[in-house]
Each structure stands twice: as structure tokens, then as C-alpha cells.
Design a protein that fits this description.
The complex is a heterodimer.
Chain A lengths: L2 H8 L2 H5 L2 H20 L23 E6 L8 E7 L2 E7 L12 H5 L14 E4 L2 E4 L2 H18 L2 E6 L5 H12 L3 E6 L6 H11 L4 E4 L6 E5 L10 H10 L12 E6 L4 H5 L2 E4 L2 H19 L15 H13 L4 E5 L4 H13 L7 E7 L6 H12 L5 E5 L3 H4 L11 E5 L12 E2 L10 E6 L2 E5 L12 H8 L6 H13 L9 H11 L1 E3 L29 E6 L13 H5 L13 E3 L1 H6 L6 E7 L5 E8 L7 E5 L39 E3 L2 E3 L1 E13 L30 E3 H6 L26 E6 L8 H9 L7 H5 L8 E7 L6 E7 L8 H5 L5 E3 L5 E3 L9 H5 L6 E2 L27 E2 L5 H13 L12 H4 L6 E5 L6 H6 L4 E2 L11 E4 L1 E3 L3 H4 L4
Parallel strand pairs in A: 6-7, 6-14, 9-10, 9-12, 10-11, 14-15, 15-16, 20-24, 21-23, 28-39, 29-38
Antiparallel strand pairs in A: 1-2, 2-3, 4-5, 4-16, 8-13, 17-18, 18-19, 20-27, 21-24, 22-23, 22-27, 25-26, 29-36, 30-31, 32-33, 34-35, 37-38
Chain B lengths: L4 H5 L20 H13 L4 H27 L14 H25 L6 H24 L27 H34 L2 H10 L7 H34 L11 H27 L8 H32 L2 H12 L3 H16 L4 H5 L1 H28 L14 H24 L5 H12 L5 H4 L3
Helix pairs in contact in B: 2-16, 3-15, 4-5, 4-8, 4-9, 4-14, 5-6, 5-15, 6-7, 6-8, 8-9, 9-10, 9-14, 10-11, 10-12, 11-12, 11-14, 12-14
Classes of the chains: A alpha/beta, B mainly alpha.
Chain lengths: 992, 472
């Protein structure tokens, strides 16, 4: 090309095209540019390039946004780790008034639902051909017109929500509903604790839910409340519970926890004393306990004599004695959604002086605001076709209520949901909501403790918060942010005195994610003892029938996470089963009925009002007269997971097309005195023939070896050590069996190390909640493999929680042990790799070099801890959108390579780079692997073992510290701190 | 070598006259020998050969399809899991390496000890070694997650920075052990073929003559050539002999150097070597029994050969039994609860049936060979050789799968069920082996003509050199 030709190219096209040569040039240019253009990636949906690059947004560097978790209503603080304009990981927000820096598995997993490809993109209008997309303008115009008509006719408008504790939303709702003659807000919780509030209305004159202060309790008695895993605010409770069991405090303290329960809950697994109690016995047992406490208090109540016939009378006496001895620092809780039971609980706590100490009424909880009786009324109104407009937000009554709320009978049903669900199917209009990571919002988990939510990413799907929608429908054009800010300026700012400038106040609150206002609790009246009445034992279920207990699982909760593959693949903390719910039967009951694990049965309510078909799970420690079923499964549309996991010759689908994951037990939720009833209904269990395999990640459930194979004297594998608090005080290291290892080394350490990264895991703190498991999955891009692969023992989790049962029935003792790469100094895996794909770093890390690995799997075979994970297949994500949840700091592993825990080496490197930039050493505590970061119990500590002042080195020197399989002399960098319980030593024996 | 000396004492059972005639039947002349052995190569293949070849090729095709699918899809198409990382793959590998051993033992060790009875079988035994090592070598390659990068196990100069191989890894030792073994076996076998290739050359015409001409390196049959040739053979035999011990010892370190209970034991090297000799002899005997029938070599592979090999089988089988007992004793004596549990689990655990098969086939079945009647019954001998091969395959399976299945942490225990694809890879190994062996039968002299002739020549002057005839 000579110069003239090149100049030609720069001229306007008509000049170029006038000649044949020019025309050919144009064609060439066109084809080339079209080709180049088609090589580029498709445009990201609604991603807006930053015109003005923020100072904070440096490509490749993470930034953190404080917000509030939306995984459930507990309102835990989160730090969203963002990279390149999108959140990739949720972490606990340190110093948060609710969560104290921890996060739960569901919270960790909730980031994945942001990138859920099923989410609605803009409003949907119901037509004869299903929902059709519409614009917000059209939706607003039509809905405003409809509301006007209803308003003019004085029609009935109902707004049905889950617990909405955001003050700005509450204000917006009130304003909107007040514009109608008959507008009412109905709040319900799928996992209802309505009876607790009702009981307080009866005993304290205010319908409030107290804030439970497990940290202040020295004696805890829980009847069926799974407060460490699913009950109300598990992260908060876990942090408080472990704070009340601090061996490192001065003086060391350890609460004593009694658990009486029907099924085997995670909380029960942690209890110091656990007894099985059928749901029908909860009332009598509580009456008995209250009677004994009355006797202690010298009160002549109307419960006198109730202890005579109470079950577990000996234990009740012991509990009463201990509760009384620690009065003022005692706490009684119950999970039953039954007013009578909860009134007795209040009575017990009142007798023990718990109100004001272990139960906070100054700042009561707003984490469950539902009122079952209001829901009952709404059902009646709907049934008589008298509801003109029903707006549903933040709830899925079509699923939660098992079809018992006829939402389709509202004349106009408007759903504010993120993705299609069982309720939106009936909606006239769907006005989609943004994911909590995309939106502004506020909340008030405890009265006076306000939390804020801010967008971490531009809207990935076109949605609008309820607050904004209500504003539009009321003719208010302010943006959502303005609505929130204006509310805070008017309502929140004046309630505080710390700051005088609103902008400064609001920015600070955003930065912290929360603000605590001076307590302004509701007025409660003096305790009304006349509400207390003894509860008699209900009639036992008919011959052959069992009592049904419905419960929630840690990941799935009420089913709101039913489309989250991480949480489906999270092993249940107790049963270790993934991807399913099941009918739990005790070993004795299963045996007497000839049922084995996986046999299909039908669970029928005795009154014929519901039935569900499920496989049997034989659950150690469960009450013999109980069948327990998890809620939250069988969500519509879960056949999407048919695409999860590898497709190959013998591969079986996670779910068949058209099927669902698990079975919905929502139809089994009964009703008693207007309240949703989760336990105690009589149910029959009938085999229906056939069996399925339940995908459990653990096959052998005990540290005791199979009887006939165990060498004499070594029947129990010494992997988890456990001892009582009393024994610990006498001899802090007494529980641990140590081995004498040779001092001198065949290969003396020839590379002196400045740093040795190490970890301690305190088994006395760990509750087995599994937050770390999901946290690790999110941080390290661990793939989801599907049900069949789990069945084939090919789950990919880098961090698992081993669960060991010892004993059965009332004597069941459960130990949890997080197990991850131990980063051994004498790593067996390192010497066997032929290509040096796994090597030791100069800082004591056992590193896996993915791109060097040829996949012999020798390292996995020889790993005594079996923590190495092989990429048996490629595990693609369901949709490209899901890929956005990947952590850019961590490589995606290809098929055929080995992977394992890296101690979050990317975080170590980041901290080191930051320290080097600032010209200093890495500070202790600066590096927190994902598992440690979100641990609500603070059980995991990471740091430099070589630094004698580091927290981890101090813990590693604790007498309780031991390494698993010490006798192999592989010298792990992970130290476990022996489990300590507060039962009697003879009660549990040597736990290992 | 020293270890092997007792082996040779066994055939030396007192008998009236171990006449060379017993080693070559039917009063064959040298000309007959050439005629008989070359005949199959110079005529069209028989129907029986075709049937066998098609059968073997079908098995091979199944194997190729399975392995193709597995490499294209992922190791997940095998039944392995996070706990049991090796299953059929490494079982097949160890099995085939073991099969190879008899060839080397027969050709090298017995050559050094001047065991004349080896002459009829050494050629095919060596061929078997090579084919077995080819089969064995395939499994470690295909068992890799990324077999296309298998060349990374070689320490070659590269531009990937300081990347090198790990000399501490037993898998790397394997690479060298198997590589050396294959090279030496191939050279030894080929050198042994040269005089016979020259015979074939001399009998052939046209292209065939030219090919054999090149392959026989211009062999002229002069006394000087023969003298150097014999020296070369003895030297190669001396080089190959240590491999009988070393190869399987190295293979055993794959297991012995790891910390898995049931693997981590010093008895494994001799245990593996004797097992290899045992299984190799069973395989040679099995193939010989087939070949003498199919190729009409009854005069060359005589009952005397079969008797001798049966005696080696019962001897090695007994040592294998002793090794099993030693293993149990050391597990008990070690005091290590993990080791004790591993063996209890091996015997009575969920895969106890495989241990039972192993003991029945490897320890009990060969004991029948103490009986002269059983040794005389070709059917019984054939059955026992098959049982021994099945048993030895299971021995490796037992060691690999049952040890891995339940090791230290009970939470990680699992089971192991092979998939169709894995079974396909197993079948394919036999397909490859038999395909190669049948091709060998078609294109190369199965029996070493020049060595048989030496035996025949001696037979014709029988009694003249008693020292040479007596199997020691």
C-alpha cells in the first residue's frame, strides 16, 4: 500500500467506494472488522462501563462494601468483596451488632442467587399465554389505575410479606396501605415463631420477640430449639453461645447446655446433656420444670404438682436445681410454635430472673415479625373472595403454606419476587425485586439496632424494591436511594446524638453497615402470672402412628434457597446428606418396621390432610416415636438442576426433567389455635416399595471401628479428643492421647523458615454449622458436582466437616471436626508426585501446582486425611451468568488435575503484597482464610506459627492442642484443640 | 540371581533319565525342526487362527473405545473416588508387569543356568514379556488425569523454568524400571531372533527375503558369528537377570513408600517379585498349552516342559502363600492398629470376597500340582493356570482397592465399584496382549529353531554330554 492508498482509507466512504479499488478496500475493511467484532465477547447484560473511573475501583483489586445479608431475616452484617464492579464473595462484617463478624452457610451461599439466570428481567404481565414481559411504565400505569379503582370502591387491599424489619419500607407500606379504606399488612414467617410473640403478649402485654442472650447464660435449657443452626438468628446465637463457653476467659467459663428434643438437631449435638423428648411431652416437661422452679422460688403457683408425672423427672430436678443455682444467668427456650409452651417458658425465665439479663426486652428482636393468626384471617378473607388486591413481597406463600392460602382468589395478585416461584405463577403482575446485593435497603434486626444495605453492583436484572414501587404507585418520583435517605434524615437521624451532620452520619452508617440508636424499647407490663397454666400430656398417637416433626435444614431453611446449588450440595451438618430431604426415623423404629436407609415411605398425616413420599434416613439419637422431615425441598423449577454435574455414560441426573429436588413437606404443616404447627401431629409411615440412595458425604458415622474388624484395644480411632470441663480444669491436656515421637529427624530441617503458616481449630468452639464449608466453596471456586457424583464419593469440597456419633438414643454424643488439608511439614503427598506438582513452600504451605499436575492421584491415595480432590470431569456452570460469582484471584481447575485447600494462598499473597507496599511485616490476624473469616464461633485461627506472639502460636501451645494422626509424624500445620463439654465426665466418657 | 537358585532345584527331581528326547518328541531331525516351526509362517493362516485373532481384536476394539471415551470425557468415567484413587488401572498395570517376568526369568535366568528345557518356550515367553510390558505401560499413561502430558514424567531438558521430575517419587522409579525393562527385553528378544530370522530369510523369496534379510543383520552362520552371538546372549542375559528382581521391586515401592496401611510394608518387594514370577509362569504355561494345540507343536512343547513348569508353579505358589502369611504376621507383630485393621478389613471387610478369591486361586489351587496325576492332566493344568492368573489379578486388586477403601479417618471411608468403561479398559489389555501374541505367532518363529536344534543334536548323540542334558 502506498501512501495515497492509505490516505484513501481515511477519507469518507463515498469517495472510497467510487472506485473499484476503493470498493474492494471497503469490502476488506468491512469483513475484517465484522470478523474482529464477532471475536469479542458478547455484551454483558446491563453492565455499564464506568465513564468516570472511581478512585477506589482499581482493576484487579478487591474493594469491600458493607451491607446486610439477605439470606434470611436475621440481618447479619456482610462485607461484600467486589472485584471489577461485581461482588464475588460475602464475608462476615466484624463488629456487627447481630452477627459479630460471622456468617452462616445460607448467607455465604446467597451471593450465588444474585447470578441466578432464572431471575425476572423487568415486570411480567399475566396473559393467556403465560407471563409476558412489560415495561415499568406500562406496569405502573395499569396498577395505579387498578389501585385507584379499588380505592374509589373502598375495596380490600392486603400486603403479604415475610418479616420486613426495614423502617423505611415499613413507613412506605404504612403510607401506601393507609391510602386505602381497608388496607392491611400481613406478615408471616415460613418458619414461624409467632407463639413466642403471642406468649409475650399474654405475659408481658406486648407482642414482642425477646432477644436471647446466650452469652450471658450459664445454664441453658432448650426444648427443641435449634438455636445454633436455624432458629431465629443462628449466627448471633452461635457467637453468643461460644462466648459463654470461653475456656480462654479469666476465669474460664462454660455454660451448661441441656437439650431435650425429638429429632437430632445440630444444637442437640452440641449439648452437654441431651435427652430425647417427644413433642407431646414438651408441655408436661416444661410444666414440671416450672413447678420445680416455683418450689425453689417459694412461689405457690398453679403448677404445683405438675412435676409429679412429668417425663424425665430426675433430669428436670437436676435442671431446675442448676437453673436456680445460676438464676439471673439462666435461660430456657423452646422451639414449639405453641402459645401454652411459650407461656411456660416465659414463666420459667421470669422465675429465674432472666428478663433483663438473658432475655433482652429493651431491644427486642425483630427478626421474626410474623403473626400466624393474621395469616389465618387473610386466608379466610381470600376464601370468601373479598380481597381486591393482594401484593406479595419477600415471601412465597404458594409454597410455604402448602397451597393452603388461596392466593389465586385475590382479584388482583401482584408479586414482588426475584424469580419465578410457586406464587408468581398465579400473579396478575410480577414486579420483580432486585437481589439484596443490588439494592438500597435498611433493616432493624433488634429494636434500635439499624442496619443498612447498599448496592454492590448495578442491577443485573431489571427490578425495583417494594419501597420504590409503592412510592411510584403513590405518585412519588424519588429514587430508591432518596427514599431511604429521606426516611433516615427524617426518622433515624433525629434519634441519635453522636453526629450533627446528616451526610456524615449516613456515610458513617453506610461504612459500618449499621448504627445503634439509644434503646427505646416497647413498654412491657409486669409479668402476668395468670396466663400460666399447666399443660397436660396430649394423647399419644394411635397405635402405629408417629409424631411428626418438621424442621429446617441449615442451608435450605424454609426453601427460599431451593434454587441454590451450593446449598443443595452442602452436606446437612448432622446427617451429612446432600441434595435431598428425607423422613428421619430412629434406628430402633426403623428396625422394628423393617425399614432401611433409602427405603421409600409415605408419611401421611393421621387426619388425612397431607401426605408426602420420601426416602427413609435412619437418624441416630432421634426419639423412637417421631418421624422428622425437613421443610424447604420440592421447590417448583428445581428440575433445572438436571443440568448440574457431568453427563456421561453411567452418570445419573441430579433430578429428572420435570421432577423436583426432594419433596415438599409444607403440606404437612398443620394448624393449631390459629398458629402454624410444625411438630406433634400424628402421622403414619407406610412403605411404598422401592428405595433410593441418599447422597451422603460420609459412610461410616462413628470413630468406633466395625466390631469384627477392630484390633483389640484399638476399637476407637483417636482422631477427636474430648473431655469434660471439670477434667479440663484438673488437667487441661488430659483428654489428649499423645505419642512419643523420636526427637531427631532423619532429614533435619535444612531450610530455615521465617514463617510457617498454620491453623488452629478449637473443637470446643466449633458447632459444625458448616458456614466455613460454603465460604470455602465461594472463595475457592469449588465446583458443584451434583447428586450422582456425591453418591460416587466425588464431592469437591476442600473443607469438610466430619461428624462422628458415639452411642445411641439418649446417650448419643456427636463430635464435629472440620477437616482440610493439614499442610504437613512431612507431607506424604509431596514425595510421591512424579512431576513435583505438589511442593512445600518456603512458608510451610503445601502447594498444589495445577498446571503441572498430570493427575496420577497418587497424592490423594497417600493422604492420610483424604482431603485431596480430583477433577474427575469438567464441571461447567449452569449459565454464563453464574461464572460472575467466580473469584478472579483463584484459578479454575481443569479436568484431570488434583486440587485441595491452599490455606487461601491468594489472601496470604495479597496481605504480603500490601505489607510489602507499606514496608512492614504482615501483621498477626491480617490474613484470614475464608473459613476463619466467616466462622460465627471463632473456632478457626490462622497465622504464623513461627511468631511466638501470634494468636495461632499461642493457641498451638495450648495443652489442648493436638494434631490428628500424630503417630504418623507427618507434622501437620493444623492443630486441633480438644473438645470440651460441660457434662459429667462419666456421662460421656472419653469422647474419642 | 542368587535368589533364583533354589527355583532351579525343583525340576531336579530324581528320575531315571531326563533324556533330551523328553524335551523334543518324535525323533525330529534338524530339517524337521525348521520345517515344523516355519510351516505356520509360510502357509495361510488357519481358521482357528483367524477365529482367535478376530476374538482378540474385538477385545482390543472394546478397549480402544473405552479408553478413547475415558480420555475424551474424564477419569470420572471410572468408578474411582476421593478415597480410592486407583482401582482397575493400577491393578492391570501391576498384573501385566508381573506377567512379563516369566519371560525374562525363562530366557535369562534359565539361560545362565543352562536349563535346556527352556528352549522350546523361551521365544514365546520373551515375546509375552514384551507384549505384557506394552500392556502394562499403557495403564499408567491412561490412568493420568491428563494423559496428553504424560511426557512430563521424563526428565528432559525443557524451557518451563526449573521444572524437573521428582526423584523421590516411586512413580518416577517406575518410569525408569519399566523403561529399562522394556528396552532390555526387546533387545534380548530381538537378538535371540536373529539366527532364526536368517533361517527364514534363507527359505524366503522376493520382498519377504529382503525384509528378513534386513532384520537378520546379514547373519552368515559362521563359527565366529556364532561365538560372538553366544557371548552377546550371555551378556544380555546377565543384564536382564537383575531386572527380574528389580522391576517388580520398584513397582512394589509404589505402595511400600506410601503411608497407606496395607501398603506401607517392607515385605512388598520380594512379595511382588515372587508373585510376578508365579503369575508369569502361569501365563506362559497357559499360552503354551494353547499354542501347542493350535500350532501343532506337541513335539516341541512336551509333557516334560509342562511338568517342569508345573513344579515351578507349585513352588512359587507356596512362596506366595508364605508371603501372604508373612504379611499377616507383620501386621499383627507391628502393633500398629491401622495396619492390623487394614488386614482385618481386607479379609473380613466389605471386599473380603476378593481376598478369598486371591487365596483360593494363588495358594490353594497350585497345591494340586503336587500330584503327578494333576500335572499329567493338561485340562487340570490349564484350569489351574487360569485360576492363578485370576488370583494374581485379584491379589493386586486386593492390595490396591481394599487398602485405600478404609484408611485412617473413618469419615473418609468409601467403597469402590468399577464402571463399564473400566471393565472395557481391562478387557482391552487382554485384547492387545492376545492380538500382539497372535500376530507374533503368524509372523515370527514361535519356537527358537536354533536352540531346539541344539537340543535335538544332543539327543542324537544322547548320553555324550550328561552335564548338558541334566537340568542341572
Amino acid at each position: 500500500m502506498d501512501r495515497r492508498d492509505r490516505d484513501d482509507l481515511l477519507l469518507p466512504f463515498e469517495d472510497v467506494a467510487s472506485s473499484r479499488r476503493g470498493f474492494l478496500q471497503l469490502v476488506g475493511f468491512g469483513i475484517t472488522s465484522a470478523g474482529l467484532a464477532s471475536c469479542s465477547r458478547g455484551p454483558a447484560v446491563h453492565a455499564v462501563p464506568a465513564l468516570e473511573v472511581s478512585r477506589e475501583l482499581v482493576p484487579g483489586r478487591a474493594y469491600w462494601i458493607a451491607s446486610t445479608c439477605g439470606g434470611c431475616e436475621a440481618g447479619c452484617g456482610v462485607l461484600a468483596k467486589c472485584r471489577d464492579g461485581r461482588p464475588v464473595k460475602l464475608e462476615g462484617l466484624p463488629g456487627h451488632p447481630v452477627s459479630r463478624g460471622g456468617l452462616c452457610p445460607a448467607g455465604q451461599g446467597s451471593i450465588l442467587s444474585l447470578y441466578d439466570s432464572r431471575r425476572f428481567d423487568g415486570p411480567q404481565r399475566a396473559t393467556s399465554a403465560g407471563h409476558q414481559p412489560a415495561s415499568w411504565t406500562a406496569a405502573d400505569a395499569e396498577l395505579i389505575a387498578a389501585f385507584e379503582r379499588v380505592r374509589a370502591a373502598g375495596g380490600r387491599v392486603r400486603l403479604l410479606t415475610g418479616t420486613a424489619h426495614g423502617p423505611s419500607t415499613r413507613t412506605a407500606i404504612r403510607g401506601f396501605l393507609d391510602s386505602f379504606g381497608d388496607g392491611e399488612l400481613v406478615v408471616y414467617d415460613p418458619l414461624s415463631v409467632s407463639a413466642i410473640a403471642d406468649a409475650h403478649a399474654a405475659t408481658h402485654g406486648a407482642r414482642i420477640l425477646p432477644r436471647y442472650r446466650f452469652d450471658r447464660a450459664r445454664t441453658i435449657v432448650s426444648f427443641d430449639a435449634d438455636f445454633l443452626s436455624t432458629w431465629i438468628s443462628p449466627v448471633e446465637h452461635t457467637a453468643a453461645y461460644t462466648a459463654g463457653r470461653a475456656l480462654d476467659a479469666d476465669p474460664p467459663r462454660m455454660s451448661r447446655h441441656f437439650q431435650l428434643e425429638a429429632r437430632t438437631s445440630l444444637t442437640g449435638c452440641r449439648a452437654d446433656v441431651r435427652r430425647r423428648l417427644a413433642p407431646r411431652d414438651v408441655g408436661p416437661a416444661l410444666s414440671g420444670l416450672c413447678a420445680l422452679l416455683e418450689r425453689h422460688a417459694g412461689v405457690a403457683g398453679r403448677l404445683a404438682g405438675a412435676d409429679e408425672s412429668a417425663p424425665h423427672r430426675g433430669l428436670l430436678e437436676r435442671m431446675a436445681d442448676e437453673l436456680w443455682a445460676t438464676r439471673g444467668e439462666s435461660l430456657v427456650v423452646a422451639g414449639a410454635n405453641d402459645e401454652g409452651v411459650q407461656v411456660l417458658v416465659n414463666h420459667a425465665n421470669e422465675l429465674l430472673g432472666g428478663y433483663g439479663t438473658t432475655l433482652d426486652l429493651e431491644r427486642p428482636s425483630r427478626q421474626r415479625g410474623g403473626d400466624d393468626r393474621a395469616l389465618e384471617r387473610l386466608g379466610a378473607e381470600l376464601a370468601e373472595d373479598s380481597v381486591d388486591v393482594l401484593i406479595v413481597q419477600g415471601a412465597n406463600p404458594g409454597y410455604d403454606l402448602g397451597g393452603r392460602l388461596p392466593v389465586d382468589r385475590a382479584k388482583l395478585l401482584v408479586c414482588c419476587a426475584q424469580a419465578p416461584d410457586e406464587t408468581t405463577a398465579h400473579a396478575g403482575w410480577v414486579c420483580p425485586e432486585p437481589h439484596f446485593l443490588e439494592a438500597w435497603d435498611d433493616g432493624e434486626p433488634h429494636t434500635g439496632a439499624l442496619v443498612l444495605r447498599q448496592p454492590t453492583v448495578p442491577l443485573l436484572r431489571d427490578g425495583r424494591t417494594l419501597r420504590e414501587s409503592l412510592a411510584r404507585w403513590s405518585g412519588d418520583a424519588r429514587s430508591d436511594r432518596e427514599l431511604l435517605r429521606d426516611h433516615w434524615r427524617a426518622e433515624v437521624f433525629p434519634r441519635q446524638t453522636a453526629r450533627s451532620d446528616f451526610d456524615e452520619f449516613f456515610d458513617r452508617a453506610l461504612h459500618d453497615g449499621h448504627v445503634v440508636l439509644p434503646a427505646d424499647g416497647p413498654r412491657v407490663s409486669a409479668f402476668r402470672a395468670d396466663a400460666v397454666r399447666p399443660l397436660d400430656r396430649a394423647a399419644p398417637p394411635a397405635e402405629g402412628a408417629l409424631e411428626l416433626v418438621l424442621y429446617a435444614k441449615a442451608g435450605m431453611l424454609d426453601g427460599r434457597h431451593g434454587h441454590n446449588p451450593w446449598l443443595h450440595e452442602l452436606p446437612d451438618p448432622v446427617s451429612k446428606i446432600t441434595w435431598d430431604n428425607y423422613a428421619c426415623l430412629s434406628p430402633a423404629t426403623a428396625k422394628s418396621r423393617g425399614l432401611a436407609e433409602g427405603d421409600l415411605v409415605r408419611v401421611d398425616l393421621a387426619d388425612g390432610s397431607g401426605a408426602v413420599e420420601l426416602p427413609v434416613h435412619v437418624q441416630a439419637g432421634q426419639h423412637d416415636e417421631v418421624v422428622a422431615v425437613a421443610l424447604g425441598y420440592g421447590r417448583a423449577g428445581t428440575d433445572r438442576f438436571t443440568a448440574v454435574g457431568p453427563r456421561w455414560l453411567e452418570g445419573r441426573r441430579t433430578v429428572e426433567p420435570g421432577g423436583v429436588i426432594g419433596a415438599s413437606a409444607a403440606t404437612l404443616v398443620g394448624s393449631a389455635a390459629g398458629r402454624r404447627r410444625f411438630d406433634g401431629a400424628a402421622a403414619t409411615v407406610t412403605p411404598v416399595g422401592g428405595a433410593v440412595e441418599l447422597a451422603a458425604t460420609q459412610d461410616h458415622h462413628s470413630l468406633t471401628l466395625p466390631g469384627s474388624l477392630a484390633p483389640k484395644g484399638h476399637e476407637v480411632r483417636e482422631v477427636v479428643f474430648s473431655g469434660s470441663f471439670d477434667d479440663w480444669r484438673a488437667d487441661p491436656g488430659g483428654a489428649v492421647h499423645r505419642h512419643a515421637l523420636p526427637e531427631d529427624d532423619l532429614w533435619p530441617e535444612d531450610h530455615a523458615r521465617a514463617t510457617t503458616w498454620g491453623m488452629t481449630i478449637d473443637l470446643a468452639r466449633c458447632t459444625g454449622c458448616s458456614a466455613c464449608v460454603v465460604g470455602c466453596q465461594a472463595e475457592n471456586n469449588v465446583p458443584v458436582v451434583g447428586r450422582d457424583e456425591v453418591l460416587r464419593h466425588r464431592e469437591m469440597s476442600w473443607l469438610r466437616i466430619d461428624r462422628y456419633y458415639q452411642g445411641e438414643g439418649d446417650d448419643l454424643r456427636t463430635l464435629h471436626q472440620p477437616m482440610l488439608c493439614q499442610h504437613c511439614d512431612h507431607a506424604p503427598c509431596e514425595s510421591v508426585c512424579p512431576v513435583l506438582a505438589t511442593v512445600h513452600s518456603s512458608e510451610g504451605l503445601n502447594q498444589q501446582v495445577y498446571n503441572r499436575c498430570v493427575g496420577t492421584r497418587y497424592c490423594a491415595n497417600t493422604c492420610p486425611y483424604k482431603v485431596r480432590r480430583f477433577n474427575w470431569f469438567d464441571y461447567p456452570h449452569e449459565s454464563e451468568l453464574e461464572n460472575h460469582s467466580l473469584n478472579p484471584d483463584v484459578t479454575i481447575r481443569t479436568r484431570g488435575v488434583m486440587e485441595k485447600c491452599s490455606f487461601c494462598v491468594q489472601r496470604i499473597q495479597e496481605a504480603k503484597a500490601e505489607a510489602a507496599r507499606e514496608g512492614r511485616a504482615v501483621r498477626d490476624g491480617e490474613v484470614a482464610p475464608a473459613c476463619q473469616q466467616s466462622c460465627p464461633a471463632d473456632a478457626i485461627v490462622f497465622g504464623d506459627l513461627k511468631d511466638p506472639d501470634s494468636r495461632v502460636a499461642r493457641l498451638a501451645a495450648d495443652p489442648r492442642a493436638y494434631v490428628v494422626l500424630e503417630e504418623l509424624n507427618v507434622r501437620p500445620s493444623v492443630r486441633y484443640l480438644a473438645h470440651v463439654h460441660n457434662g459429667a465426665s462419666e456421662e460421656h466418657g472419653h469422647g474419642s | 540371581m542368587v535368589l533364583e537358585a533354589p527355583t532351579l532345584a525343583v525340576p531336579a527331581e530324581p528320575r531315571p533319565a531326563a533324556t533330551p528326547a523328553a524335551l523334543v518328541g518324535g525323533q525330529k531331525s534338524c530339517r524337521d525342526v525348521t520345517q515344523d516351526i516355519c510351516a505356520p509362517l509360510e502357509r495361510r493362516p488357519t481358521g482357528l487362527w483367524w477365529a482367535a485373532f478376530l476374538g482378540a481384536a474385538t477385545l482390543l476394539a472394546i478397549g480402544v473405545a473405552s479408553v478413547w471415551y475415558q480420555i475424551a470425557t474424564g477419569i470420572g468415567t471410572w468408578g474411582l473416588n476421593r478415597t480410592v484413587g486407583w482401582g482397575f488401572d493400577i491393578t492391570n498395570f501391576v498384573f501385566w508387569v508381573g506377567i512379563g517376568h516369566a519371560g525374562t526369568l525363562i530366557s535369562a535366568v534359565l539361560l545362565l543356568f543352562r536349563q535346556k528345557w527352556r528352549t522350546s518356550i523361551n521365544r514365546s515367553a520373551e515375546a509375552m514379556t514384551i507384549f505384557a510390558v506394552i500392556c502394562a505401560g499403557l495403564y499408567p499413561v491412561i490412568h493420568m488425569g491428563r494423559p496428553w502430558l504424560a511426557y512430563w514424567v521424563f526428565p528432559y531438558p525443557n524451557f518451563r523454568g526449573p521444572l524437573w521430575v521428582n526423584w523421590r517419587s516411586a512413580l518416577l522409579w517406575d518410569v525408569f524400571a519399566i523403561g529399562t525393562y522394556f528396552t532390555i527385553s526387546l533387545v534380548f528378544w530381538y537378538v535371540g531372533l536373529i539366527p532364526d530370522l536368517a533361517t527364514l530369510r534363507d527359505r524366503a523369496r522376493g520382498l519377504r527375503r529382503r525384509i528378513f534379510g534386513v532384520l537378520s543383520f546379514g547373519w552368515d552362520g559362521s563359527a565366529r558369528t556364532w561365538s560372538r552371538y553366544e557371548m552377546a546372549c550371555v551378556l544380555l542375559a546377565s543384564l536382564a537377570t537383575p531386572l527380574v528382581v528389580s522391576v517388580h521391586s520398584v513397582v512394589s515401592t509404589d505402595f511400600a513408600t506410601s503411608v497407606v496401611p496395607g501398603w506401607h510394608t517392607t515385605v512388598l518387594p520380594p512379595y511382588f517379585v515372587i508373585g510376578a514370577v508365579f503369575s508369569g509362569f502361569a501365563m506362559v504355561l497357559m499360552l503354551m498349552l494353547i499354542a501347542r494345540k493350535v500350532m501343532s507343536f506337541e513335539h516341541y512343547i512336551t509333557p516334560a516342559h509342562i511338568q517342569a513348569m508345573c513344579k515351578i508353579l507349585v513352588f512359587t505358589g507356596s512362596i506366595v502363600g508364605l508371603a501372604y502369611a508373612t504379611e499377616l504376621f507383620t501386621a499383627w507383630y507391628s502393633g500398629s492398629p491401622y495396619e492390623q485393621f487394614a488386614f482385618a478389613n481386607r479379609i473380613r471387610g466389605p471386599m473380603g470376597w476378593s481376598y478369598a478369591i486371591m487365596v483360593l486361586c494363588n495358594v490353594v489351587a497350585p497345591q494340586l500340582l503336587w500330584s503327578r496325576r494333576v500335572r499329567g492332566s493338561l485340562g487340570m493344568v490349564f484350569l489351574i493356570t487360569i485360576l492363578v492368573n485370576v488370583g494374581m489379578w485379584f491379589e493386586r486388586f486386593v492390595i490396591i482397592a481394599t487398602s485405600l477403601q478404609r484408611d485412617y479417618l473413618p469419615s473418609a471411608w468409601s467403597g469402590y465399584t468399577p464402571t463399564m468403561v473400566e471393565v472395557g479398559a481391562l478387557i482391552g489389555g487382554f485384547g492387545l496382549f492376545f492380538t500382539l501374541f497372535l500376530l507374533f505367532c503368524r509372523f515370527l518363529p514361535m519356537i527358537s529353531m536354533f536352540e531346539i536344534k541344539a537340543v535335538v543334536a544332543e539327543a542324537q548323540h544322547h548320553g555324550h554330554d550328561a552335564k548338558g542334558e541334566e537340568p542341572r
